[in-house]
Structure of Fe2OG dioxygenase domain-containing protein:
Amino acid sequence: MAYSSSSMRRPSGKSSRVPSYSEYEQSITAPPLGSSCCSSLQKEESRTDTKAMAPYDYAGEEFLSIHLPIYEFDRIMLAVKLVVAFVGWLVVIPIMLATSPASSAAEGKKKEKCSSSTSNTTVSQKKNGTTTRTKTIKIVETTKKKSKTEPNGKSKKTSIAPEHSSKKANKEESEEPIVKEVSEMANMLCILGFMVTFLYMIIVASPDNRYTTRGVFEAPLFTREECDFLVDMAETVAQRNYEAASEARDNTTIKDRDLMMTEPAGWQKKRHKLYSTTDLNVITDPFSKTDRQWIKEKLNARLAPTIERLYGVPQGSIRANDIFVIRYDGDRQASLKPHTDDGDVTFSALLSDGFTGGGTNYYDRRNQYYHTGNTRYQPQPDEVFAHVLPQIGQMTLFRSPILHEGVQVKKGRRYLLIGFLSVDNVDPWSEDNESTGLSWFASWFSLNWASVRFKTGYSSAVYTNSKLKANQDDWMAVEEERDWMSESTYIRGLFIQFHSHLTMLADLLSTHFFQQIVAANQTKPYLENMDQAYARRRPNKLPSWFSGQQIELSIDGSFHSEWSTRTRNSEKFDREEI
Ligand SMILES: O=C(O)CCC(=O)C(=O)O
Ligand SMILES: [Fe+2]
């Protein structure tokens, strides 16, 4: 079975409206499954330039149980629809709505004179003794002097031309302009109509929103054996932490040493300030270089292409804010309250089974907005739109602003590998903030993305402000360091308003759904397929899973801060070269 055979690309019975795919397939020659290149770690030399690759050549496509958008094609269609909406609302409909002045022919002539001598801005007219503001658009109809003129002064044969061409028309002696006018009210309605259409298309009809805002997706990430391996890896790291904490005398040499010594020993308990989990971060906790390499290769081969295919973002635009293993125990930390994550996309892979309870609840927050004034509104159980209890090795992928909670584990242990990911429009590691190739439709025109960026803008403004205040005696005097964002509380206020309103819009307008994109019983062949494809053709730009965990980008794409984890561990970072 060749993985890229065209008949396998789409599940049978699904519409195939994608001309671009046939081109993609022609450019791919795939060795059959089971050929020798199975280890992604050993086959670096077999990787070839990916420039010839199709943008959405996704190895696991044959296992998909849903029809994913063809982003390039759909975005072009969206752009075409936006242009049509623009022309329709702002040109065609105003022309259709334009009427001749309802006044007498003589008055009409007077008006013509007036209009031809003024630009197409608003003018005032005296009507019944009152002054009314009129005419933002004028449409000039020209007629031959000698042509038959109807009693109402309208020409039988008319040609419609915008007002700016009236000069030309006037030059021709034989022509006499008749001005049609669009009332201010009709104009406003057209502009409003365009704005509503524009927002509808961007919010609801864009592939980047339709499939991503409030959808929760499930797909395989690890085999059972790999999950066991990861759990062992995490417990070994915890053991290392515990030993180091035992040797240390107090909290000064090891942060939160006392907590580290409490059960489960060696696990962090206060790493996340607001919604603390019992966890181990792959960077700041002592995972070995081999451990990290192993995780990185799996994420490169399986997670990155899935995110790219699902959300329509280039792999090089993905950067992890935080990747960690989390542990719930029925008799210790057993749950996590409803919250949203710090990033654009979250992945969460289940690494264990044999526990009771657990799973993740995803909330539809729409009701929350109807409880106006109740800022402490608690999400209600009936607002859960998905309770996801996957099989071991399966991951869920969702946009981080979706409200979710870790459901209480009643008995046993539940381990997860979790990542909060950012999708960047500039490459933070390039010298000159190079573009990552992220489309506008997947970024500023995507409600979730834009909403998260505005939050980043807010925190970067607050950060800059507080840093300057802390570091400078007279911070107001440090002209060159102050930036426009840190200057104004209004700007910061605006950022936070944009953030919460865009999140609210996405909550209100998006379809909430859960979708298993690859069936759990396909885990083995699916993962093999993904690994082989990765071994054959590694993309030019890969996500930044590790180094990216320490930085934040400000809204304009420049670096704005380092996480304390980086600051505390800079030596280790340099040494490990991750
Ligand atoms: O336990 C879960 O499934 C959710 C965990 C989570 O949301 C988090 O760690 O941010
Ligand atoms: Fe979370």
